[in-house]
Structures
1.
Amino acid sequence: MTNQENSLNWFEISVSDIHRAKKFYETLFDIEMPLDNMMGMDMAFFPYDSGSGKASGALVKSEMHEPSGAGVKLYLNGNPDLSVALSRVEGAGGQITMPKTHISEDVGHMAFFIDTEGNTIALHSQN
């Protein structure tokens, strides 16, 4: 890896109910997430531009994927203002655990929430 490459190229959010989780994230971000089954794993894909070099990921249900509030923290893009997605968390069945918090002028803002699967996920935005 070099400083010319993304440090993240793919992420998977573990879920126990693919349809419930898909609905939660579609509601938060006002997006559609196509479903597929690959290698025995149920997957719902976040928007991506194939071949662009931009990182993306999916919700994944499989024997290897177990939702958890502990461990790695993933920051999803809440630009231009994470308040929009954060305002939808509780209505979609999640729980806000840290409200929108200012980090610095250069870095922006962050917030944490627990999704419908029990994962602790973060949002980041410049505003």
2.
Amino acid sequence: MPAPLNRRQAVGLGAVVVGGWAVGQVLRRTAPIGRDIGPRADAILTGGSSPEDGPADATLRLAVFTDYRCPACRHAFPAMEEAVRRDGKVRIIYKDWPIFGPPSERAASVALACAEQGIYPAVHRALMTDSRIIDDDMLREIVTGSGGDWTRATAWLAANAQAVSARLRANGQQAYAIGLSGTPGYLAGPMLVMGAIDAGDFGRLFARARAAN
């Protein structure tokens, strides 16, 4: 059995560990972020069939593939919002991809139904930050709290259920076509990132996407 470390050895080992972590952080921050998927990005970023939010004169379009029950999506959401706010010239294209079961599908469908009332971004934001179990009571509160009419949203959804289902299927097909295996996925220009990232990495993604265009 090895002898226990003395204080000097322990301090030295701690310094090595901290130093290794710091080097890892530097390498992560300096390594290129994202994968260039080329022309495949064009149809996703210019299709015009998904809810959007952001300045009309944006210099970058960001397609966001998320699920409201996805922990990683929810974790990265505040960082994405912060990075978009700091940048000021990013337009978000929302690609609801409900892969976490029926509650996710219901939430995504209701959110898309709210686009007709012009409140999709507010509903999306509320769903991404509300920790309650998703059911119709919760969804009703989200919609009304976002300034919408629940009865109008559910009536619109009932009348357009096939179109909404087709939109969700198309989002999934787009996700698979660019190599996503799950949520979240972020497509900034031609640059694709899979998984949650922080505000700094979103900023680096935006810069690389603009340089690639």
3.
Amino acid sequence: MGGRRGGPVTPERIVVAGSLAQRACRGGHTWVFLQYLLGFRRLGFDVLFLDWMTPEMGPGAEASRYSRAVMERFGLQDHYCLMDAEGEAISGINRRHAIERTTASLLLININGFLADPELLGAAPRRVYLDIDPGFGQMWREQGLHDAFAGHEIFVTIAEKIGRPGCRIPTCGLEWVTTRQPVVLDQWPSRPGQGGAFTSIGAWRGPFAPIEFDGTSFGLRVHEFRKFAGLPKLTRQKFEIALEIHDTEVGDRELLRQGGWRLLDPLAVAGSPDDYRDFIGRARAELMVAKGMYVETRGGWFSDRSACYLASGRPVIAQDTGLAGLYPLGDGLLAFHTLEEATAAVESVSADYSRHARAAREIAEAEFGSDRVLTALLERIAS
């Protein structure tokens, strides 16, 4: 396989592009990229991470410090380049070296198409779009609002049912490779004990707006979570949520508190990769409520966060996004549609916790281990 510029290709290098600095001090968001970087490194690849900041972030000193601290923490200090809005490197290796290393790579994996720099994209022998928010990009393209897929040659999504009957995510006429979220298992050991509360972590709204498409409004997590706000009082179990929610959301904050939720500051309890991992490890189980987009499109979306809970030996009670046929459901991983089903799942986990905890780790090892997931992905996109 030859490079576009005629230079030598180093098959042992993979470049990953993402947006770590744009959401600094969000431990869970950081782990999205670390799973790929550390996972490919485990397989023997040299890795390079490309990141940049937006004009709205200004000088970005805090973001730069956070990125540097994360990269040093995981031995990646010579394997990343953080650029400012003009494309100049402000942390990590310089831009020239980043271009050279990208040119001499096997491929570039552009997570959610965050990298838009034409010179860096053009340097890559192969450009892979990795879709981890399935439905949004496809509907934007179909409506002529934004085409994040342009300039890429290979298209990968975690919506494992895309193109199948019942899945409402448009394919946009593209050939999609499907994958699932990897977890570097040795970074996520199973935790002993039964933990404290049923927990959740997330953003109430997030960066996207609801989408009207094909006669349906595809909403956000807020629109789904309201349906399950009263779950703690129905189960008499302890529930906590590390929730990124604006202070002006007075009504929703009160709805959650009245329902029995204890609201936590995600920056305080999960603001670094280690804090995020510890927060999950202290939990009893996860209650995963998905964005309305994932629920309505039935693409089989599964949270990277839930995969981390499973790896930690923490059962996951997941709102169904079309999971049947993709994962073993029942022990360790339980799916629900209604408030009544969610209540029954909480009671099942509480009644035989040890069985569900063992099954959770087994599912993580069988379905999400990075060695297995990333090897399978490369076999499909790098041949």
